[in-house]
Amino acid sequence: MRILVIEDNGDLCLAIHHWLRGAGFAVDAVGDVPEADFELAVNAYDCAVFDRMLPWGDSLDYVRARRAQGWSVPVLFLTALDSVTHVVEGLDVGDDYLTKPFEMAEMEARVRRLCTRSVPGPPPVLRCGDVELDPGRHEVRRAGALLTLTKTEFGVLELLLARYPEPATTRELIKRFWDEVRPDPNAVQQCILGLRRKMHAPRMIHTVRGVGYRIAPA
Prior knowledge:
Layout: E1 2-6, H1 10-22, E2 26-30, H2 33-42, E3 47-51, E4 53-54, E5 57-58, H3 59-68, E6 75-79, H4 84-93, E7 96-99, H5 104-115, E8 126-128, E9 131-134, E10 139-142, E11 145-147, H6 151-163, E12 168-169, H7 170-177, H8 187-199, E13 205-208, E14 212-215
Parallel strand pairs: 1-2, 1-3, 3-6, 6-7
Antiparallel strand pairs: 4-5, 8-9, 9-10, 10-11, 12-14, 13-14
């Protein structure tokens, strides 16, 4: 299950991110609506957790506008706005409403319930050239040969394939796969080198100077 968290309080955002990761969810966490807009454009989510009052404004208006366009991802609002009027507004637009302060275990239970409302189909197989990544089977093949990748290598390759033909930034890779306060600046480079070695020649993963990495057919 993949969750998007939108919360502008850095400490709370980090705490929610860590809790849900520990509960077995894949989690992307951002601080405002424009960042959420980007993540929603490039990723499929099973649930989105929105703080209501963000630097952009009231996220209820954002969710309402997306709903009018047919967007159907379940939404849990987290907010200090706890009047009956606010709760009713949130439930009219979203799918659940939890007032602050709250217990992480309750938040997790509500997220899990929203994720199970619908049973998604199998994730699409990602392809570029002779590389094929099947997220459902957790398999990667090149020219039909099965590759043995670490969990991080698999995730990085999956993101590169999802971004194709655009690059994935180094910052994005660190944020998603090296959840550390001070990550090793060489971690991404070492992971890419490992992927290149395991994928063999000709090289498909290319460095985009000053940006990050992209994959392209050999």
